[in-house]
Write a structure and sequence with these properties.
single chain; alpha+beta
Length: 99
């Protein structure tokens, strides 16, 4: 597939042989033409989304909410503090919960 991109422009940026190209993992499946709300975590989204991560989330969140059905964020989502992780990834600094 990479060979098919050589010589093309993606988002106005030329893809040339021998040049380093980094596709951030968090950019996966963020095509607004395919996913109307790509930033929304939608566990019911049709296949084609990051399937392994989606399955892990479904199993993990289901198990967690089964064990603690009243579990909720203790603060509004917008108030969560984020920290950089690896390359372009980020994660919450803390996740305050209540139940």
């Amino acid at each position: 597939m990479v060979e098919e991109l050589l010589g093309q422009d993606i988002g106005g940026v030329p893809i040339r042989a021998g040049k380093f190209v980094l596709a951030p993992l968090r950019a996966g499946n963020h095509d607004r033409g395919r996913f109307p709300e790509p930033d929304l975590v939608d566990l019911s989204r049709a296949p084609g989304h990051l399937t392994l991560a989606r399955t892990e989330l479904q199993v993990g969140i289901t198990a967690l909410l089964t064990a603690a059905p009243r579990l909720r964020l203790a603060v509004p989502f917008e108030e969560l503090a984020w920290r950089p992780m690896f390359l372009t990834l980020r994660g919450p600094a803390t996740v305050p919960l209540t139940w």
